[in-house]
C-alpha cells in the first residue's frame, strides 16, 4: 500500500490548484471533527460499558470505533496545518498523524468486512453463533491490527524523514521508488485493501438477502430486517467512503509517474484525488450509524442512560429549588 502525494507534473501540464486542495482538506476536517469526536466517543463508551456480552460483532464494532477515534483526534493538527501552512510540531508527529489516516482507512475496511462476514455466517448457521466464543473475535481483531499496521508502514517509509521545510501531509517530500516497485505496491494495496474486501462485503450482502428470502429458520421478522440492514449499511459505508479513493488511486499513481500523459485526463484525476481522500475521512462520521441504527441494544442503552441523566438533573433542580423555598 502506498500513497504518493501531489508533486509537480511534467513541464507541459499545469498542477492542480494548491488553494483548492488546502481549502478542501481544511473544511472537511473542520466539518468531521466535532461529529466524529462525539459520535465515536459515545459509541466506545456505550459499546464497552453497556452492551450485553451476548451481542454479536460487538468486539469488531469497538475496534472500528477506536480506529475512527484515533484518526479524529489528529484532525485539529491537520486543521492547524492547512490554515497556517506551517508545521511546528516536529517530523515524528507529522508522520504519526499521516500514518493514522491510512491506518484508520484500512482498519475500518477490515472491521467492516469482519462485521459483514460474522453477521452473514451467524444468520445462515445459527448453531455456529451459539458456539462462537468472544475470544475468537479478540484474536481476529488483534491479528487484523498487526496486518493492517504492517501494510500501512510504506506510507511512513516512503516519506522523507529529513523534512526541514516544516511541511506535512499532502506537502510531505516523498521518496520515489522505481516503476516496478510502485506498480507492485499499488496492485497489492488495491487488491488486499479494496478488491477482496469489496467482493466479500457484496457476497455477504447478497447471501444475507437470499437467506432472508428463503425458508431458513430465524426468530422473528424484526431479527431478519436487523440482520439485512446491518450488512447493507456496511456495504453502503464501504462504497461511499472507500470505493472512490481506490478506484482513482491507480490512475493517480499513473499520472504522477507520467504513465498517463494527457493533460486534461491528468487534471481530472489529480483534482479528484483530494476529494476521494475527504470521502474516506467521512467514514469517521458514518461508522457510528452502524452501531446506532443496527444494534437495538445500543439504542436502548443509550436512550435509557440519556433519560436517567435528564431525570437526575431535573430531580437535582427540583430539590435545589425546594431547598431555596
UniProtKB/TrEMBL annotation:
Subcellular locations according to the entry: Membrane
Q: Determine if Calcium is one of this entry's keywords.
A: no
Asked whether the UniProt record includes Glycoprotein among its keywords, one would answer: yes
Q: Name one GO biological process term.
A: positive regulation of Rho protein signal transduction
Instruction: Show the stretches that span the lipid bilayer.
Output: 24-47, 59-83, 103-124, 136-158, 178-206, 227-247, 274-294
InterPro entries reported in the protein's UniProt record: GPCR_Rhodpsn, GPCR_Rhodpsn_7TM
**In what residue span(s) does the G-protein coupled receptors family 1 profile domain sit?**
39-291
Q: Name one GO cellular component term.
A: plasma membrane
Principal localisation: membrane
Query: What is this protein's name?
Result: P2Y receptor family member 10
Q: Which gene is annotated as encoding this protein in its UniProt record? A: P2RY10
